[in-house]
Amino acid sequence: MRAQAHADDPSAAEVLARGCLFPVRTVTGVWVRCGTRIKSRCPSCAELYRGDWAAIARSGVFDGPVEQYRFYLLTLTAPSFGGVHRVPRDSGRKPPRCGCGSTHTSGDSALRGVPLDPSSYDYAGQVAWNRDAGVLWDRTRRRMRDRWDSLEYFIVREWQDRGVLHIHAVVRIVRTEAPSPDALRDAARTATAFSKVDGASVEWGAQAKCDAFRADGDGAKTIWYLSKALNYVLKDVATDSGDVPVHVWRHQVALSDAARRMRCSPDCDPQDCGSLVHKRYGSRSQVVSASRRTKHRTGWSFTGLTRTVQRRLRREWWESRLRDEAAEDVPAVPPAPLEDLAARSRRELIARGWSAP
Ligand SMILES: [Zn+2]
Ligand SMILES: [Zn+2]
Ligand SMILES: [Zn+2]
After folding, report:
1. Ligand number with the minimum distance to the CA of 99
2. Integer Cα distance of 265 and 242 in angstroms
């Protein structure tokens, strides 16, 4: 019962309750959270970030007339920039043979994501792709909306072992115009864009996946999958640990080097450009995002939940608590969509008869 263990994991709530490690004092003298999403920096703020986004993800699946929609889980990857070793994560399944000729086991993690031939690997191409991935997603979502106007999405960008981004998107389309998963996948995967920096064409890799689901069916499975993806959000770059095997480390150095030397904008001078893009293998995108509410659109969240709204609700709750404390009448329950996430997801998982994906 992995699902139960995951949903019941008490550490998330505990971590959150421990509070921010590096609170910042504002000019008005109020203490606020450091607000990082990086777990190694501040576990409590990172958990808050993950929880907030998880709530937004859920509110676009469960908080509306779900029977009117079809949902999809779409994964898009980057193209190949040279062969890498294929090392399985668990020893359960028999892995495919690697390009180097051997069949790796999970014990070969020192080679995971490492190029087969570093001397011919396209490091510059890879960091440029990371840099332009945002423009490519922009073209992709516009292309999908041109075909299916009701489309809304929630996306998480995750690092692959080779140091390139890939995208998990939960997509919602009104049933009356909903395409087959294959049609959606192909429309997304074949979208192309042009780099705003060097004009080069930017494309997705051949590997893409799309599954359809019903929120009144196996939606909880998808939410479990998303929560899993959201855990990657808490890491800064592909590897966040201090103890890195030497081949992996060399690969990271080569990528960092390429990112240091590329231009991040048409008039960037890499020598003395301070943009963080040069430090994140070229990536500039936000890690998580969702389609926004406009005059003509619901946006991803049926209830209009955004991080701004969440921050405001939290602030209002604390302010009212402070007022009530003064009046010796402390409310025990925080506002529902924010602090009660663990309990809520547990209810959803149980109610929907969760099974392992
Ligand atoms: Zn913090
Ligand atoms: Zn290999
Ligand atoms: Zn730059």
Report:
1. 2
2. 31
Distance 207 CA to ligand 2 centre (A): 20
**Cα 49 to averaged position of ligand 3 atoms, centre (Å):** 27
Rounded to the nearest whole angstrom, what is the distance from the C-alpha of residue 88 to the centroid of ligand 3? 35
Ligand 3 centroid – CA 285 distance (Å): 14
Q: What is the pLDDT of residues 77-119, one digit of tens each?
A: 999 999 999 988 876 777 788 999 999 988 888 999 999 999 9
Q: How far is 187 from 310, CA to CA, in rounded Å?
A: 34
Q: How confident is the model at residue 236 (pLDDT cuts 50, 70, 90)?
A: low
Residues 180 and 172: their CA atoms lie apart, in Å, by 12
Number of other CB atoms surrounding residue 336 within 10 Å? 12
Look-up: residue for tokens 């939606």? Answer: 219
pTM score: 0.81
Ligand nearest to the CA of 103: 2
DSSP three-state, residue 235: coil
Q: What is the mean pLDDT of the chain?
A: 82
Q: What is the pLDDT of residue 350?
A: 38
- Domains for the chain: give ranges and CATH numbers: 50-81+122-305 (3.30.70.1910)
| Residue 159 Cα to ligand 3 middle (Å) | 21
Helical packing angle, 43-59 and 341-351, nearest 10°: 40
| Protein residues within 5 Å, CB atom, of ion ligand 2 | 85, 98, 100
Dihedral through CA 73, CA 305, CA 64, CA 46, nearest 10? 40
Spatial separation of the C-alpha atoms in residues 45 and 19, rounded to whole Å = 7
